[in-house]
Amino acid sequence: EAGVAQSPRYKIIEKRQSVAFWCNPISGHATLYWYQQILGQGPKLLIQFQNNGVVDDSQLPKDRFSAERLKGVDSTLKIQPAKLEDSAVYLCASSLTIRTGSYEQYFGPGTRLTVT
Amino acid sequence: GDSVTQMEGPVTLSEEAFLTINCTYTATGYPSLFWYVQYPGEGLQLLLKATKADDKGSNKGFEATYRKETTSFHLEKGSVQVSDSAVYFCALNTGNQFYFGTGTSLTVIP
After folding, report:
1. Interface subset of B 21-50, CB within 8 angstroms of A
2. Which of the pair, B20 or A105, is modelled with greater confidence?
């Protein structure tokens, strides 16, 4: 089966600019996650969707970050305006569902963002 | 709050050596525990998991046992290969939240 797809793979922007990342999860996976992984750290969960509803966004900096999953399939994560500290790899993951206890997440290759 | 503390690296071992990467956790309730691996240039992959106390997860020769009494989930492998060179992440899931450790880089030399 096809894995989690993300684009772009790399992005370089200047601070105060805007950027958007796209994720297409594995077909049939109801749950989608966005993580931020700063160099030398583990992934930090930003937001979790179940179908097209938000399950948890407690660690999403809502003043500049936004995410949507309008049709319950693919998702976009946006940063506006970007700051230097947003430089990181943004990972998308999906899983079948959280309700059945199937917590195995499948990760995409990530988008490496550099803010200059 | 909930968290994962992972052994710092980098770790360098000779081929066929024994591997242990320590992981301890802090959590309310009864979390599920995971080890993920990230090979160079690739995304994270689930290596093994355990969902309740005393469960042992295993895959590709790696093992980890969910120890509630010591709040630990140490990763072990009896004989590492060059192909095991990667970054290993311990993680826990509690409720809707997932927490990852900082990762341990392993290099296996021939």
Report:
1. 32, 34, 36, 42-46, 49
2. B20
Buried b (16+ CB within 10 A) or exposed e, A36-49: bbeeeebbbbbbbb
pLDDT in tens, B3-26: 999 988 899 999 999 999 999 999
- CA dihedral sign, ordered A115, B3, B8, B9: negative
Check if the beta carbon of residue B105 is closer than 8 Å to that of residue A39. no
CB contact under 8 A, B4 and A91: no
Question: If you ran DSSP here, which 8-state letter would residue A27 be given?
Answer: T
Cα radius of gyration rounded to whole Å, chain B: 13
Instruction: Work out the angle at residue A5's Cα, subtended by the Cα atoms of residues A4 and A11, and round it to the nearest 5 degrees.
Output: 135
Asked whether A50 and A97 are in contact (CB, 8 A), the reply is yes
C-alpha neighbours within 13 Å on the C-beta side of residue B73: 32
